[in-house]
Structures are given as structure tokens and as C-alpha cells.
Amino acid sequence: RGSTLPMSTPRKERLVSPRKDNPDLFNSPQPAGGGAGDDLDEDEEGFATMSQLAYQKPTFPAEEEALGHGGSRAGKIVIDPVHGHMYFPGLVVDAIDTPQVQRLRELKQLGTAYYVFPGSSHNRFEHSLGTCHLATNMYEGLRRSSGKAVRQHVSQADKLAVQLAGLCHDLGHGPFSHVFDNEFLPKRHPNWDPKNPAWSHESMSSDMFEWMVEDNHIDIDQETVRKVRDLITSDDARAPPGKKFLWDIVANKRNSVDVDKFEYIMRDAYNTGVKGSVDISRLLSMIKVIDDKICFKASEVYNVYELFHTRASLHQKVYTHKKAKGVEYMVVDALAEADIVWNREISNAIWSPQEFIKLDDTILKRIEWSREPGLQKGRDLVRRIRTRDLYTYVNEYTVPEHDIPNFTPVCETDITTCQGDNNVPGGLRPEDIVVHNMKIDYAMKNKNPVDSVFFFQEYGDKNCFHIDKSKVSVLLPSNFMERKVRVYSKNRSQEYVEAVDQAFVNHQRRMYAAAQQLTPARKRRRFSKTKRFSPSF
Questions:
Q1: 201 is catalytic
Q2: What is the dihedral of CA 125, 126, 130, 133, to 10 degrees?
Q3: What is the pLDDT of residues 433-465, one digit of tens each?
């Protein structure tokens, strides 16, 4: 029998026993003096893999009530196309059934990428449920695999805090998700500093969570509320010894390996059809806590690299798709027009959770069907989106490697000042174009995030270590960040597109003495909409 089983599959007699045989697997904390279930500490084969956890409900409704964490509703099982059956205890269901969380149903996870990838219709709501589910699984996996020293430090209240942080970590996202904070807010707040913004969706998420608890009279004590806020913002300043690893489950600022990233990579790849090479279920199986840090089995080091490679690939293929970004800039311009007419109603909503909750993707419909005379330009932009009359992608170039550290973002005036003779009446103006300064990295700017990941060799080990990239593979990247500069023409007419293209080439020659773009200017055929859809003979 042993010769036919995969090495990672526990022997039949080592599977997690039923509740009546090992009640400690479902109860925490453990008595300091030991007790039933301490065999998990003495036998490294006794750890529970995530494949086992996937078929076990970690906590049952009757036990929630006994533990004082039952909530006003019963626990629920939700079927999900990515994770299968997901179980949520009563208090988490209390949080799910609130206006603050239900608002996430109206926020597209991938923003304007939905206009390019029709399958990516998923919303922040299902992503948040999935993150809560994975946070539960990671917590249970760490508690079971890491021994008595860890189990005696954590409690059911800690588990609840991790679950709520997973569920509520995205409450602070605005319309069209990252479009709102990355593009719209800097446009409407003149003194906005992208490197040190006065507002972030993480801080709004924590504010929204606290308001959600108060507004819906959810039975959660103030200590748990404070802990959830800190978990969402990854603020571990008040994390007690023995529990600091909990702050790395949902939002890991140490190395960016967390269940939020696991979930959106799995769900975005599933819904867009863009395949990745990382095995996240295996990563979740090969973990334990050492020295208050989440560590991965050394055999998974290449899989960790694949996690960041897949993320970068999704950024290249989906998140920064040239057509999706064209729609994104049109949405931003439409929102800016509305914000002017509505006396900064949108841009100032970030200072109040009670106002912020009113913002979601349906704001585009509000603009589209408004009758206010001052919103005609905004309505025209939405109409262009509906008829696929999008801002035109002209070209892009990759910033040379040696220029990346001191790169200065290119602005519209840098391009228009390089224009030569063209057929645009009066010449190109900065408002005729959009420049996209694109940055794709491995989640930690120009650093290798795996240098900050800890590993262990065997499950019985008490020490953890880093693994140098040179010992993994010579095929791994030597750089972990790239920059590209793209330019769009807001006017689709041939005269404007050709003028923008030539100005962009001249800009590259001024900066680098030669054109850096990968492909030459595309030959665009001149044809009207009538001719475009006429049959050819």
C-alpha cells in the first residue's frame, strides 16, 4: 500500500481522527499541562494537511454557541466555483448580512478589465468570502501543524478576528476598485502624494468595519474590533508575543505572501481564463509557525517564486491590458466631470464611511442617465464606452534597466512639447492625450520578496531559514520590477493618432537618443463606421 501512495499523502492510520477521538483538534486554547491531542506535537506525521481540512468543517454551529461566538444567525455553507463548499460561522454571517459588506456586490473585482475579459464579472463580494474562507483554512492549518507551543497561545477569539479581517479587508474600495484610488483621487486632489497618500482603501476598510459593527449592533467586543482593524491594515505594533504570525495571514507586510493574494490570483485566473503556474493549495498545505512567523516547507521555494511570477503575469495580461486601461481613463474622466458638477461629492466622500458607502460602480449609470446640463461631457464619455469608441492606444516603450532606479514619471506635457509639424488644428494639447506610467513588480517594488520568506526542512524542526535565490535556479529573474510608458490619444481621428505617435517617438529620441518602443507605429486604415460594417465584395 505504501508504495502506491504519493509521498505527500498521509498513511490511512495517520489521518485526523474523528472529533470524539481528538476533541482538542477543534478546541483552543489547549491546557498548559497537555491533554488529549498532544500526540500532534510528538509525531510530525500527525499534522493536518489542507487537503484533509477541505473536507472537514472546522467549527460547528452548536460549538459556536458554547464558545460564546455564535452570533445572531446560524452558520452557513456557501458553494463557490473556486473553493467549493465554504463554511461561515454565525458571527461572520452577521457581518456578511450588512449593508457595508453587501455593497461589495456592486464593485467589480477587476474594474474595467470586465470590458475586455467578459468572464471577469466577479465582484469584491465573492473575493471577500473566499479570502475569509482561506484565512480560516490557513489559521486551522497553522494551529494544527505547529504544535502545542502555538496552540496554547491562540483562542477562538483570534480565529474570529482573522475571519472577520479576511471578510472585511476590501470594504474600503471605491468605484471600479483600484481605478478610484490610483487614478481618480490624484486627479481630483491637487496635493495628492502617491508615495504618501492622505487616504488608503485599507484605512477606509478598517473604518468601515468599525462602523459596520456599531451600525448593525453586531455582538463583537471592542478588543476584537481593535484587533480586526490592525489585521486589515497589517499594523502589528500591538501584536502580543506568540500571536504576531496572525498578522501575516490576511495582509502580510513582511513578504506579501497572504491569503488575499492567494484568493485573487485563483479567482482572477479562473474568471479571465488566464492560466497561472502556481499551486496555491500545495502552498497552503506546507506551512507551520516557527519563531512567531509563518514558514513554508523548503521544497516549496520554487512554488513561492511561481506565486509572484503568476501575479506579475496577471498584471501584464489582465490588470494593465491596454484596452482595459483605455476604458479606465475614460471612466476617470467621466467621474471627474461628475465630481465638478456635484460639488466634489465623490472625491470628498473618502473622509466619511457614511458617505463612502454610497459609492459603487453604479455611479456610471447615474452619470449616464443624468439630465444635468453640466454633465453632458460626462454622458458623452459613458456613451463612447457603450459604443466602444475608446481612447486609442498608440504605443509604449520599456524603460531601460539602468534608468529604473531614478525614473521620473512622464507627463502629458513631456510628449506634447516634442511634437513636430502635424495636421492637428492648433497642435496637440496635454488634454488630448493620456500617459500611463506602468510599474509591474513582485509586490515589493525592486526587491525579491522571497528573500523575506522563511522556510523549514522537516515538520519537527524548531528553526527556520531563508533560501538564497542562487540556490534555487539560475532561470529565476535578476530584476523584480519593470517600468513601461504608454500613451493614448483621446481623439480617435487619424490626424490626432499620427500626431501623438510622432510626438511619442520624438520624446523617446530626446530621452534615449533612439526610439525604445518595441514595435513601429501601426498602420491604421481610414474608414468610416458605415464602411466598417459594410460587406466587402
A1: yes
A2: 70
A3: 999 999 999 999 999 999 999 999 999 999 999
Question: Distance from first CA to last CA of the chain, Å, rounded?
Answer: 69
At residue 157, what is the residue type? A
Exactly one of 201, 321, 436, 507 is catalytic; name it.
Answer: 201
Length of the chain: 537
User: Taking the model in full, what pTM does it have?
Assistant: 0.86
Instruction: Output the nine-digit C-alpha cell for 46.
Output: 500527525
Per the listing, cell 497589517 goes with 234
* pLDDT tens string 320-372: 999 999 999 999 999 999 999 999 999 999 999 999 999 999 999 999 999 99
Are 299 and 467 a contacting pair, CB within 8 Å?
no
Cell numbers that stand for 269 in this block: 485566473
147: its cell numbers: 504544535
Query: ∠490-493-498 over CA atoms, to 5°?
Result: 85
Strands (E) across 202-286 are located at none
How would you classify the pairing of strands 293-297 and 287-290? antiparallel
DSSP state string for 496-510: HHHHHHHHHHHHHHH
The Cα–Cα gap between 104 and 495 comes to 42
